[in-house]
Amino acid sequence: MGKKQKCPEFENHERWLVSFADMVTLLFAVFVVLFALKEGGEPQVQRTAGSMQESFNTPLDDIPLDRKKGPTEHGFGIFEHFRGEEVSPPVVQKYPSTKKQVKIIDEDMDRVKVELEERLYGPKKYPDKKTTGHERIVQVYPTEKGFKLQLLARHFFKPGDIRVRRAARKDLDKVVNILKSLGRDVTVEGHTDSIPPKGDYSNWDLSALRATHVIKYMIRQHYFPQTRLSAAGYADVKPIAHNGTAAGRKLNRRIEFHVHYDSDSAGSL
Hints:
The protein is α+β, with helices and mostly antiparallel strands. The protein has 2 domains: about 15-85, no CATH class; about 100-260, CATH 3.30.1330.60. Helices cover about 40% and strands about 15% of the residues. It has 7 helices and 7 strands; from the N terminus they run ααββαββααβαβαβ. It has helices spanning about 15-40, 40-55, 100-125, 155, 170-180, 205-220, 245-250; strands at about 80-85, 85, 140, 145-150, 185-190, 230-235, 255-260. A hairpin with a 3-residue loop joins strand 3 and strand 4 (about 145-150). The longest helix is centred in the middle third of the chain and has 28 residues, at about 100-125.
């Protein structure tokens, strides 16, 4: 008997139609959504854009995180801190609402104050909480975007010089280490009094060059992330005391470290 012939397999040459039909269906759905957004107006576009951004954990700057309704009530993206099947804690703590934001800022401020007192002053050098501002070389204050560390320039710089005193570098090191541990964006601001300095620098030059010198020091000596730093010089246009007195001018000559908490980005200055 002869060998039984095998029936040839049927080959469908139109299989591509299935994938093509799926693609057409998806495109149709996209255009329907776009048309619906157009008819719904600007508010609907903003809400939809916000939902899409939140899904990928990149919320828009102009859509506050506490604007949440329905399934996105808590405001966490579907990929928030996930690695495979494990949940890893965030490196920098985030906040889904204004109240949570204020709480985190207050907690960081309190921690910074305690660490500054322990590292910089010590129990014997900083015992009196009522000591006037003239005696404190570093102070912490809240701001609209977070808080700031205010350093008196007379302790860290010689008159008219842009480089940090060698004797004050240990104090600056302690401040920078604390700032680096926060993992936040920082703007370094230089400020002067209203009296023109001696030498080739103007107050504008002095304030800007001191701020940039501090940033270079932070990067070179402490490997502070460059993308988290920015600098600004304001000369004497933002005084915190009256320039008509010697005590006021001492306070106005300062370096400020502004720690930002607005969407984890430094402000444009």
